Amino acid sequence: MAKRPLGANISHMLKTRGVDVIFGIPGVHNIELYRGIEEAGITHVLPRHEQGAGFMADGYARATGKPGVAYVITGPGLCNIMTAMGQAYSDSVPMLVVSSCLETKDRHIGRGRLHEVRDQEGAAATVCDWSVTAPDAPAAYRLIDKAFAEFSATRARPKHIQVPIDVLGSPADPAPDQPIVPAKPVARPEDVAAAAEWLLGARRPLFIFGGGAAQGFEAARKLVRLTRAATMCTYAGRGIIAPDYPLNYGPCLARGDSAA
Question: What Cα–Cα distance (Å) separates residue 69 from each residue in 13, 20, 27, 253?
Fold first, then answer.
């Protein structure tokens, strides 16, 4: 297959990894990422501000259970989306932010280039699981697959990958085939049976649900009805148990005095 600019290949790769929608704002720095979006068959949603792109990606991930993906430019584009990244980190929401960064020859030199930031990678690292620079196409592909593997098998939190402008525009071979995606650990049947025995024998069971249980809300509702258990939840866990369930006490706060 003929080589494309790496930016276009990244969009094609994301499509093969199950990405159907990307949120973001194009600019001169990240335009190569946008060259492959339509060709790959991905829907692009254009907000008025990168913070909106981040919260759209967050909401998309919460509603679908799939990672939300956003494209932003160097400097202010990344800074604008960091508020949403921080919220996604706090609530364990899978979000992948792909940004441009200064050309390789200009990084960490302080030449006053357009949108230059002293430590863009480090700034993003304060609000996400990890923030890494991909110096070439193989590194970019590895980091994307690393992000999706972690979304699948570990606690979901936002990741940031930045690629220098010159690298995004350089011809590159297509991404390799998707590796086997690991799955989250599954409890042993004997452990599930033991837990069920304890629950059925409890006189006043109480469940506390967090956002991590959202994809299993149907099983959670059946469980509390079967055990006649009282329930509470975190703010991220609202809606897992139906609001009309008589023993649902709603979101509990970290500090009791904050309810006032």
Answer: 13, 9, 17, 30
The tens digit of pLDDT for each residue in 30-43 reads 999 999 999 999 99
Q: Please give the residue that has the higher pLDDT: either 233 or 53.
A: 53
Residues 209 and 241 in one domain: yes
pLDDT at 2 over 80: no
* Degrees to nearest 5, angle at CA 63 with 96 and 234: 95
Tell me how many helices (H) and strands (E) the chain has: 10, 11
What residue numbers bound the domain in which 56 lies?
Answer: 4-172
Sign (positive or negative) of CA dihedral 73, 18, 216, 193: negative
Can you give the pTM of this predicted structure? Answer: 0.84
CA atoms in the 13 A half-sphere facing the CB of 88? 37
